[in-house]
Design goal:
Layout lengths: L1 H38 L12 E7 L1 E23 L5 E6 L6 E2 L4 E5 L2 H37 L4 H33 L2 E3 L4 E3 L9 E2 L8 E16 L3 H8 L5 E5 L6 E15 L4 E8 L11 E18 L4 E3 L2 E7 L5 E5 L1 E6 L2 E6 L6 E5 L10 E3 L5 H13 L1
Parallel strand pairs: 1-20
Antiparallel strand pairs: 1-19, 2-9, 2-13, 3-5, 3-8, 4-7, 5-6, 7-9, 9-12, 10-11, 10-13, 11-12, 13-18, 14-15, 15-16, 17-18
Helix pairs in contact: 2-3
């Protein structure tokens, strides 16, 4: 009986003990969780992705010239080697090397005395024969009435008439001799036949010069106007000829840097043959050369304007990118993101590209900072001198 009572008493005690242990454990777990929660920092808000700095520019709408480019050589319009036409000694040089001369400007004066003597002799012969002719005509005038009266034979009258004819022929010869002597004397004064610039003088005062000499006194080169001969591929010839049928084509020359403009002229002709070895055609253009920027023998770059693209769309050349599928540009969308757009480039000129297809008026394209871009990337337009864009360019160069 006693054991039963002890058993009944021990069971609730065990339950109370077990409940107390569970409570302690729950409290311990709760305290640990509170401590861990207190040790964990609060979560931070996710910051937005920063925009990529780029340089952007709107598509430009303007009349764009369609040009063909070729390498040319400046050629003088006229080149004259000043040589003596008679043998003589140079008495005077009438120009300074590099001087601009005009038609009639004195180049050199030869000793005229031998030619003056020849002219004087020819003129004396002419005067003598003219006196003989006068006397012969007078005698003929006497013989004609005397022949009618029977005092002079017909033979004498005929002989006198023949003498008059001979003297008239002699006078004609004398006049030719006088003219020749005057011409030879005129050759002793050597003058410029054209407008031009004198070169280096080859003969000095006191030298004997003669016709057909291998050394000219000086060479005169005409530079106003002046010509430029340049080449284009033979495939461009039909388009040039078609454009020439509608009017004169303008040609513009540039220096070796392809930026310094030297002159504007007009196309004169397309040569009548194609060079089979190079597959090119020669063309010739004429330039007024008012500022004398074009010089004979100079190499120049020539741009031949064959037409004009009205309301053409152009962008900076730096906006054009090359991808696996061809050329494209990054166009900024209204939401500030960019998207690749394929384009077709008709020509490039002076740092700009004429776009045939792919763009429209009002589009804005990225011209610098493309190396971090892809479709959907948000961008921020910055000035061209922004250092972030420059660093991007340097990074791109380092990657290449």
């Amino acid at each position: 009986m006693k054991n039963r009572i002890l058993t009944k008493l021990s069971t609730p005690a065990k339950r109370r003990t077990l409940a107390g242990g569970i409570g302690v454990a729950v409290c311990a777990v709760g305290l640990t969780a509170w401590r861990l929660d207190a040790a964990t920092p609060p979560s931070q808000p996710i910051s937005p992705v920063p925009s990529v700095p780029v340089v952007a520019e709107p598509v430009q709408v303007s009349d764009v010239p369609i040009v063909m480019e070729g390498l040319g050589t400046v050629a003088a319009y006229n080149v004259v080697d000043m040589e003596a036409q008679v043998t003589g000694t140079i008495q005077k040089i009438g120009f300074v090397e590099g001087q601009v001369v005009h038609p009639g400007s004195l180049i050199a004066q030869l000793d005229p005395r031998p030619f003056q003597a020849t002219l004087a002799q020819a003129e004396a012969n002419l005067a003598r024969d003219q006196a003989h002719l006068t006397n012969a005509l007078t005698n003929l005038g006497r013989y004609v009435p005397l022949e009618k009266q029977g005092f002079v034979s017909a033979q004498q009258t005929t002989n006198q008439a023949s003498a008059v004819t001979q003297l008239q022929a002699a006078i004609a010869s004398d006049k030719a001799a006088v003219f020749n002597a005057q011409t030879q004397l005129g050759y002793t004064t050597i003058t410029s036949p054209i407008d031009g610039v004198t070169g280096i003088r080859r003969v000095d005062i006191g030298n004997l010069v003669q016709p057909n000499s291998t050394t000219p006194i000086v060479t005169i080169t005409q530079i106003q106007p002046i010509s430029v001969v340049f080449t284009l591929p033979q495939k461009d010839v039909p388009q040039v000829q078609q454009a020439m049928a509608h009017g004169t084509l303008a040609a513009v020359t540039y220096g070796q840097d392809d930026h310094t403009q030297l002159g504007t002229g007009s196309l004169l002709l397309v040569n009548n043959t194609i060079n089979q070895s190079s597959g090119t055609a020669q063309l010739k253009a004429t330039f007024p050369n008012a500022n004398r920027a074009l010089w004979p023998g100079e190499f120049v770059n020539v741009r031949l304007i064959v037409s004009t693209q009205h309301n053409g769309l152009s962008v900076p050349l730096t906006a054009i990118q090359q991808g696996q599928s061809g050329t494209f540009v990054y166009v900024i969308q209204p939401d500030g993101t960019v998207r690749q757009r394929p384009v077709t480039v008709a020509e490039t000129l002076d740092g700009r590209a004429l776009v045939d297809h792919g763009l429209q008026s009002g589009d804005r394209v990225v011209t610098a900072g493309q190396y971090l871009l892809s479709n959907g990337v948000k961008v921020a337009a910055v000035p061209p001198d922004d250092p972030r864009v420059q660093n991007s360019s340097e990074a791109t160069a380092g990657m290449l």
